[in-house]
Each structure stands twice: as C-alpha cells, then as structure tokens.
Amino acid sequence: MPGRKVLILQNIIPHYRVPVFNLIGKELGINLTIAYDKGLEKGNCNLMAAQRNFSVIAYEKRTLFTSFFRITDLNKLINGYDVVIFSGDLHFIAPIVALLTRRRRPKVYLWGIGLSSAKGLREKPLGDRIRYLLNDLSDGTILYSSYVADIYRKRVFKPGKVFVAHNSILVRKFPLSQEKKTKILSIGTFKKNKRLPDLVIVFAKIIDRIPEDITLDFIGDGEDANLLRQLADQKKISGRVNFWGRMEDDEEIYAIMKNAIVSVSPTQAGLSVLHAMAMGCPFLTSVDAITGGERFNIKDNETGYYYNGQISDLEQKLIKIVNDQEDNRRVAYNAYTLYHEERNVEQMAKSFVDIIMQ
C-alpha cells in the first residue's frame, strides 16, 4: 500500500484533537502534518514533540472582503502532499477554490460540521449550496455526524463523496458505575447562551418532589458563575447545590460523575455529550440545542434524553429521570456502550485513515 503525505488545515490545534491526530499519524503509511493559523498560535494547546505522531506547521493569511481570507504562499504550503484536508468553515473558501482549480492537485477534502451551528444546527440556503458544490468539486466532505451526512446525500450530485468521522474526544475508560446515583450534574463552561440558570430554577421547583439526598452539581467556571451562586442563594437551595470548579483530569471528573444520574446542558450539546456517555452518564438537553452533531448520538430514552426547550418540560423530565433510576441505569448502560463501541477516538481516527488510504 503506497504511503500518503497528509496535511490537515485548522485555525488552532486544541488539546482534544491531539489524540485523534496521534492515532492517524501513527498509522503505517501515513505521514501527517497539521497546519495552524500563525496569528492564532496562542490558542494552540501544548504541542510537545515527544508526545505526538504528527508534524506541525504555521500558515499566514490575509483578509479578503472582511469575512474571508487567502493563505499566503498556498502553493508552498501544500507542495508535496498527497491529501489536503481543509476545515469545512466557509471562511476557507478562497484557498479551497484556489486549490481545486489547479490542473494538478492533491486529493482535497473538507472536514467539519457541514451546516451552520451558531444558532443550533440548521440549513442555510446560500451557504449550503456552496458546501454542496464544494463536495462535488472536491474529493469529498468528512462530516461529524451521520445525521448531516444524510442531508448531504439528498442534496449533492455525488453522494458517494460524503463521508462520516463521528466527532469524539478521548476519555479514560472507567467501569460503568453501580454506585448510588445522587447528583444532577452540569459540566463545562458557564456561558450565558447555555441557559444554566434554568437548571437552578427547575431544581428549586422540584426539590420537594425528589429524594432529600439529590444534589445539583456544577463542574466548570465562566461568566455565569456568580449568577448561578446568587440564584441558588435566592431560591434557598444553596445547601444542595455544589460548585466544584474547573476540572480537566478524567479521574477527578469520574469521582463525581460516577454518582451522577444525568448530565444536563439546556441549550448546548457539544463534546460534553461524549464525555458524559463515556463515563456512563446519560445526557439531557433541548431538542434544538446548539451542536456540532454530537447531539444526534442521543436517542430519547435510549442513550440520553431530550426536552422541548421549555422550563416546564425540563422540570417534568428531571422528576421522571430522578424518580425512575432503574430505567435510568438502562439508558446509562446504552450510552456507555455506544461511546466505547462506536463513538470513541479510535473509531474516529479509523474513519480518517480509511478515507486517506482509499
């Protein structure tokens, strides 16, 4: 099997992508390089050479028409590569088109969510027509989820060019907990658009209808931290609301999550969905939560839970989940199994390897 020199272009290199890139880079026959925006270098994670199976290189860009940019010395950047994988962000459209119109070019793929996600995953006619056209002109699109892939295959002229590498993160494997579940959990940054105050309000509403040992627990920090604490005080429930601060070590997170009934994020369902599933904790979010596709790993009452976005429905969902823990253990088992058998980083990396080597 011939080798492949592969270049993946990103804005920055976040820590959660390194395990995936390492798995791709250690594959026999693949020489992987990750390119990042030099102007955003401070956003990169710690890239210690001894701990990675890929090279890194910076590119410089120039702004075009406010929202778009071109890459300086694009020809030099991509020279010698067999496969070039661009971020599917349409801000990359100028270098993508420049490469696609070359007479002799490497294989070119686009990788990403595939649809607009700023206000919840949705189709946008103009942007999507451009994405579908780029799919047909390039060697294909690599999408985060099967849900979006199904949309693409109905819209593009060349559905055989639509691929899926389910978005994932590396989570240390712990045993599926059989301990008593006493926590309603929320993990991640306390951003305003997550509507985390809704969770405090609902907990105050249901506190007299659930067992006395049930607590509301937050792991994380951010702009709404003080608001959440103040709200707990105002509702006179602070004795049953815990703030654990930011945690990044899986062992520390598992020490809390092993006793969690459910992990809740009202309006955002990103990689935290996979993190919870990997630790055997079902995820509860709204049906129109902002997502990169991770939300579609949730099948209601099978691998997680949805509510309709209204506080009243969140209230009813939590009461049912907390008071029917036998059924919740079934959902937890399904979520845990889905991650470890189908949605782990090894599966994600394998999807890339299969595409690269075809």
TrEMBL record:
CDD domains: GT4_PimA-like
Keywords: Transferase
GO MF, any single term: glycosyltransferase activity
Sequence intervals crossing the membrane: none
Domain Glycosyl transferase family: from-to ranges: 173-336
InterPro entries xref list: Glyco_trans_1
Keyword match Cytoplasm: no
Designated name of the protein: Glycosyltransferase involved in cell wall biosynthesis
